[in-house]
C-alpha cells in the first residue's frame, strides 16, 4: 500500500495506547501491515503487543507526532527501510513507530556547488542515480543500497563497500533538518563549500541512531564521478595470506575503491545461491576494484602484482563490465546467502588493519573452542569484518554457545584497540557492549548530551543506551 492510499488521520482518537490522540500523520490501521513495520532485519526482531505505526507524508506530520509524543511521554521509534541489523528500528511496547519512507524526494541537485538535498526516505541507490544524472557521485555504498534510506544511513553513519577509498556517510553530510521532540524544527551545518560557525551539531546527529531527533532533510556532498570500476578477484590458500594482501593494498598510493574479504565458507554459501564465478577451492578471496579515472586497468594490474607477492594463488581480472558486475553481484549476495544457512549472529567489529590476521585467527580459535560454525567476510580494507556465528534455531543450547562466541569476538576486538561496531550501529543488540567499550563515565556524558535534545527520553528508548 502506498502512503497516498493510507487515510489521513485528522484525529486518531482512542488507540491501542489508550490515551493517545494524534491530529496528524497516516496511522496504519491494518494490523497485518502494522506488524510488518514493527520489525527490522536484526536477529530476534519481533512485534510487541501494543504499538502504533504512523507513516509520515510530510514534515508537518513528523512535527505533530513529535509534539504530541513529547507532551504525553510516548516513546517514538524513527524508522526508514528497516534494514537495521542492530535492532535499531524495532517497535517497542507502547511506542509510536514513525516511518519516513514516504518523504522520498530529491528536492535539489546543485551541480556547481556539488550537493544534493534529499528527504530521509530517499533510497541510497536513488540518490546515487540523481547525482549521476548531473555527472556527480554520492559514494556511501552500504550492501543494502537498493533498499536502505538516506535517513537511516545518516542515523547509523552507514559505511559499506567503498569506504576504503571514500569514507563513510559522515564524510558526505553537510547539513541536516531535524525535528526534535516537542516539534521544533532545527537546521544544522551549511551548504557552502566551507563553514565553521558554531559547534558541529551535524556531526552529533550523524550516527545518533534516532535517539536525539528525527532527520527530515539531508544535504549531502557530491564528488566528481569516477570511471566504471574494474574488478579483480584474488584467491588465497590461507586466511593469513589474504589478510597480508589487504595490508599490501592499503599501502598502495592509489587506494582501491573496494577491498572485500570472503572466507571459504562464505564463498561456498554464495555459490550455493547462484554461480557468481567464485572459485570454491581456496581458503579466502579478496575482491578489489579501481575506479580512478583513466587508470583502472593500470591500478588493477598493479593490485594483482601486489596480491601475488602477498601470497595469492590466482588473481582473475574481470575482462568486461558483465564479469565485473557478476563478481559484485556475488559480493552483494553474501548477506542473503549466509541468512539462508540458518540462525546467526552478525558481528560488525572493526580492528586496526595490522591486527586483521589476528582477528581472523581469533575467530577460528573461538569457533573451535565454543563448538560453533563461524564465517568471516566483510570490508577487509577497513579492518571491518562481519563474522557470522551460526546456531540451530531449535536448540537453545547452541544459541547460548553462539552468543558466547559473539561476546568473545567483541572482547578480542576491544583488546586489539578496535570497536564493537564499524557501521551497523549499537542498536538494541549491542548496548551492553557499548558500556564495555566506552565505560560508565562516558555513557553518562553521552546521556547528558541526549537530554539536551530529548529531555523526556522519548526518542528510541532502548537503543544505544
Ligand atoms: C543485506 C544488508 C546489508 C547491509 N550492509 C550494510 C553495509 O554494507 N554497511 C552498513 O553500514 N550497513 C549495512 N546494513 C545495515 C543497514 O542497511 C544500515 O544500517 C542502514 O543505514 C539502515 O537504513 P534504513 O533506512 O533501513 O534504516 P532503519 O533500519 O529503518 O533504521 C536504522 C536506524 O536509524 C534510525 N533512523 C532511520 N531513519 C531515521 C530518520 N529519518 N531520523 C532519525 N533516525 C532514523 C532508526 O531509528 C534506527 O535506529 C545492511 C543491512 C542489510 C539487511
Q: Distance N terminus to C terminus?
A: 34 Å
CATH topology of the domain at 106-224: Uridine Diphospho-n-acetylenolpyruvylglucosamine Reductase, domain 3
| Computed Rg | 22 Å
Helix/strand/pairing category = alpha+beta
Task: Provide the helix percentage.
Answer: 25-40%
Low-confidence stretches: 1-21
Account of the 3D structure:
The protein has 465 residues and is α+β, with helices and mostly antiparallel strands. Among the domains are: 3-99, 2-Layer Sandwich (Uridine Diphospho-n-acetylenolpyruvylglucosamine Reductase, domain 2), CATH 3.30.43; 106-224, Uridine Diphospho-n-acetylenolpyruvylglucosamine Reductase, domain 3 (2-Layer Sandwich), CATH 3.30.465; 230-336, Alpha-Beta Plaits (2-Layer Sandwich). The protein is 34% helix and 19% strand. The protein has helices at residues 31-36, 59-72, 124-132, 150-156, 163-166, 201-205, 239-250, 264-273, 296-310, 321-332, 334-339, 356-370, 396-415, 431-438, 440-453, and strands at 26-27, 51-55, 76-79, 95-99, 106-110, 115-118, 136-137, 173-179, 185-189, 214-221, 223-224, 230-236, 258-263, 284-290, 312-317, 343-346, 374-375, 377-379, 384-385, 388-391. The strands form 5 sheets. It has a 6-stranded antiparallel beta sheet, sandwiched between helices. Strands 5-6-10-8-9 form a 5-stranded antiparallel beta sheet. Helix 7 packs antiparallel against helix 12 (356-370). It starts with 25 loop residues before the first strand and ends in a 12-residue tail after the last helix. Residues 1-21 have low confidence and may be disordered. The protein binds flavin-adenine dinucleotide.
